Amino acid sequence: MKIQRKVMATIGAVALVAGLTAVVPTAAHATGVTYGTLTISPAGPYLPGDSVTLSATGLGSPVGGNGGGVLAATCVGNGNPQLGPSSCASPSSVNGATADGMGVRTGGAVPSPALGVYNFGFSGSSWSTSITIPDHVAGLFGDYPTYTCSNGAANQCLLAISDFRGNGPVQVPIVYAYGSVSASPSSPYANGDDVTLSYAGLTPVGVSAGGGWQAAVCVGGGLPQMGPGSCAPATGPSGGPSVKYFFDPTDGSQSVKIIQGDAGFTDYPGYSCGNSAGHKCNLAVSDFRGNGPKQIEIVYATDQTATSTALTATPAGSANEGDSVTLNATVSPVTAGTVQFNDGATAIGSPIAVDAMTGVASTSTSSLTGGTHSLSAVFTPTDSVTAYGSTGDLSYDIAVPQAPSVVTPAGITGTARVGNTLTCAATFSDGTTTYAWFNNNVKITSATTNKLVLSGGYYNRSVKCAVTATNGVGPTTSTSSAKTIALGAAAVIKVKPAISGTVKVGKTIKSSTGTWSRAGTYTYQWKRNGVAISGTAAKKASYKVVAKDKGKYLTCTVKNSKAGYASASSTTGRKKAA
Question: Domain 406-484, what fold?
Fold first, then answer.
């Protein structure tokens, strides 16, 4: 559905027309696209007219733009679509008015701070402003004129910072206070002090009581009270020393003990009550759904000592999977206590005592798996009444061991011809190297070094090599491209062959092989006046001179042949047959 949004400014009406679809809050009180965070101070329950500060971060919209600006206000809840700014209180909305059946308000006044604040053209990421909690009178929302804000789902209203399209942080339900509570004696307090909480008017606003009431020390500082687990733990049917349960709402009183330090809140494990930010606690009288009088913030006579915990790791920055990593947590100032080391939400061993001299607690682990780890060291003081705990965080990378990686691929050097030697080489990141050679893709079992001597049998064959590097993880192999082996160079004559014996008809003469640079297989061809003599008799080292030879010049050509090599020939000097 396309809608037209209207923004009412304190000085008049400013129309924003945007063809945008209405959004419906989710069960988590979010509208539209949820991004950023919203905190409220102080925490409820609230009375109409109370001032609260809304602080939001991460307001850089992931959907582009922010619809013209942002607003801080009380907005309609109970699953009703927030159609635009008119589903929220405006800067001109009043408190203390009356309303007719149509939700038309009369009387009242604009409070300070206003019920709603607009920030036109906002483009930052953080914003904080104060607004006033509205009353229980209809007519607050232009889009829902008869809707009233109160406790209970049917009348739920939400504290919101959002853009004018309903996108922004998860919104916070308003819990209205009712009745009154006082504490005697008044603050400041020490741990274990007895305090009497006197209450009156425990008549719920908009809802029935949640089964009973409690007088207790509860979490404060703007953190949501989700139920009894956000308050002091019960140790019996009627509660413990810091919480008392009762079921008669008649005006009366209950006595509880002040908690300083570790509060034991099951909803907030490790929470420590004190004066510092992030440690605030309240004295509360409320029903079991958190409704009741406005709570009293506890002020302690002395605050705990703040500590800091620094977490380091050895080796620094990163390690390999399976390596031992030593974690060191240094607590400052040196304070008695223990440190729990964690990998995300998983504990690394048991808590380690802090050294009384150095303030250091250490542990080692080999269980970190590959990836980036969010490590933490959570310090818990022995005496939480005198010292705060603290946490040190560290992002740590664990590398998964890998088989060797190829740095330089395998390659063959040397001239690929019979008689030469080829060399295979490759480089790897690590590992022990071995070599293999292949002849027409068949492994040469005898060739296990980086050298291969090319004998004649390799002529016209395809030869390649493979280099394998192996480490503790496994092997990596790099294979070269193949080379086709050419003929080897022909032998070179050193001393020419020569004819021995009497060159005369009827006599047998003989040709030597000559001396060559490389031995081979020798064949012979006798020639008469340079022309080859036919017949097998003329193809031997010895030759019997025949009548046809008389007066002619005889020579013998000796041919040196070897498999895989080019052949070469040499001819004797000529001799005249008599």
Answer: Immunoglobulin-like (2.60.40)
